Amino acid sequence: MKKMNLLTQILVAFILAIIVGVLVGPSVEIVKPLGDLFLRLIKFIIVPLVLASLVVGVAGTGDIKRIGRMGGITFVYYMFTTALAVTIGLILGNLFAPGKGIDIPASTEKVEAAESPNIIDTLLNIVPTNPIQALVEGNMLQIIFFAIFLGLAITMLGDRAKTLYNFFDELAEVMYKITAIVMKFAPIGVFGLIAPVVGKYGLSVLLPLLKVILVVYIGCILHALLTYGISVKAFANMSPLKFFKGIAPASLVSFSTSSSAGTLPITIKSAEENLGVSRKVSSFVLPLGATINMDGTALYQGVCALFVAQFFGIDLSFTQQLTIVLTATLASIGTAGVPGAGLIMLTMVITSVGLPLEGIALIAGIDRILDMIRTSVNVTGDASAAVVVNAIEEKRDVKLSQGVSA
Ligand code: ASP
Prior knowledge:
Mean pLDDT: 91
CATH topology: Proton glutamate symport protein
Distance between the termini: 55 Å
Shape: globular
Structural class: mainly alpha
Order of helices and strands: HHHHHHHHHHHHHHHHHH
Number of helices: 18
Number of strands: 0
Bound molecules: aspartic acid
Strand content: under 5%
CATH class: Mainly Alpha
Radius of gyration: 22 Å
CATH superfamily: Sodium:dicarboxylate symporter
Oligomer: single chain
């Protein structure tokens, strides 16, 4: 019999997990350690992988201008697509009014609002005072900063830092190899992650909030198909089908783990091997995206803010909805790529337009279900940026080489 490829294996595991979860119910929890083990295995790759591959990526170019340009394009793409995602969320939320006609009592539980971060401090905090601590804590932006500097200095020193360059080059290769080994375990891991979620949530929990679940899912799928489909076609002339198929391992794993940071090694691997993104681009764009680019989260925050307003019978003006676009875009940047972080940042969005925070408690009960799809979109969005930036860089390189040879 022909061996199934990895993507098919993951899909089969996914479907099996849903069937087993439905049939067995909450006691399927017993398989959870398999999921947790998989998650730990990918997580331990992240810090050395990002550090080593970004150092090599930067040292390979040694061109600070290129990094600046790449950073600029990536940032604009991330912000624009995120704002678009919230807008899609708000349009669907207005159209389908998921918060109207719900008959569950509002909770009286007190919810604390997350503090909105101080912009200056957030920016300053990108510079680590102790890079080793940044590595130990897995602070991604600080690691990116440190890696860029290391890469640049290694290039400037040339032969004198050759050993260090080779060290990072080999470390990166070794970490890629480990990713490939761990990936073989993905189908079992996905099974171990999905089955307990399916087993835990009964219809009685999901049904009253089915409308909000549907609106978030439809919004996320629409955003992915339209925004990313069109972007990869327009900028990279890549067929959307090839894009979605190529990134599918990462989309499925992030759906199961609800963590874009945790999925990073698989996102990098899929982008490079299946979508032809160069290591220079993937090692920079993807870790940055896993940290600041959260389109699915922003879309969900837009829908949920409207949901809360509708539930309490509060009308939001056009200006208030614009405020939501702005705060949800900012809140999503501040959202960590870990499970449930988007719910905490939702408090910021809700307070920005003066809605009652008690509304959050309604969503909290089903948040994991929403987290899965939003994380999957977060990760798919990062990969679309990698494809776009890669195409722009390639075109520039071709132009430059033609200019040189002319
Ligand atoms: N779980 C999401 C992620 O890792 C963040 C969120 O909770 O919205 O991308």
